[in-house]
Design goal:
By secondary structure, the protein is α+β, with helices and mostly antiparallel strands. It has one domain (3-133): CBS-domain. Helices cover 32% and strands 16% of the residues. A three-stranded mixed beta sheet has the order 1-2-3. A two-stranded antiparallel sheet has the order 4-5. Helix 2 links the parallel strand 1 and strand 2 (40-43). The longest helix has 11 residues, at 93-103. It comes from Mariprofundus aestuarium.
Length: 135
Amino acid sequence: MSRQSLITVRDVMKENYDIVDGVATVRQALEVMRYVETKCLIVDKRHEHDEYGIVLLSDIAREVLAANRSSDRISIYEVMTKPAITVHPDMDIRYASALFARFHISRAPVVNGDGMIVGIISHTDMVMKGLMNLV
């Protein structure tokens, strides 16, 4: 594979994301959400040995809205997926896409070698920004 044909997660990820505390209510989390285009919230670690979580807007629609539950009484912890499957910024998007397919996910936090979130990636990002540039 030539270097020109390698497109990494870093090349196509979104650097803007929202991070919330798992004990926040769904309403509180949505009120502070600034980057709706990511369609998800990252749930912060509680301590250094904890893992990140993720909650998609579709999870909230299914678990809160469709179930006719109060967004003031449901915490993010109740609807999130934890641990979130994460990807490294230097991963080839073809491998990231295969990982997404294998685990039936649509987006994932991008975590650097220090364990810090540096972005978020989705199928849309990989296809629209990446696939068009692959040789």
